[in-house]
Amino acid sequence: MFGLSEFAILLVVVIAVLAARKLPELARSAGKSARILKAEARAAKEGESPDGERRHPN
């Protein structure tokens, strides 16, 4: 009937067809997450002095 390779190909095609409607939403979500992570990393970097110690906001 079906071999393992045919089953794997069929599974990939089915997942691609079912996930096609969600791809734009997933891409937007990934973009938002990347922007948030970048902003947090920038804020953390600005909060440290050149020698690596944290500055105290006064």
Assembly classification: single chain
Number of contiguous helices? 2
Proportion of helical residues: 55-70%
Instruction: Count the beta strands.
Output: 0
Radius of gyration: 22 Å
Note the topology.
Elements: H1 4-19, H2 23-46
Polypeptide structure, described:
This protein is mostly helical. Helices cover 69% and strands 0% of the residues. The chain is built from two helices and no strands. The protein has helices at 4-19, 23-46. The model has no long low-confidence stretch (mean pLDDT 82).
Task: Give a nutshell description of this structure.
With 58 residues, the protein is mainly α.
What descriptive keywords fit this protein?
58 residues; mainly alpha
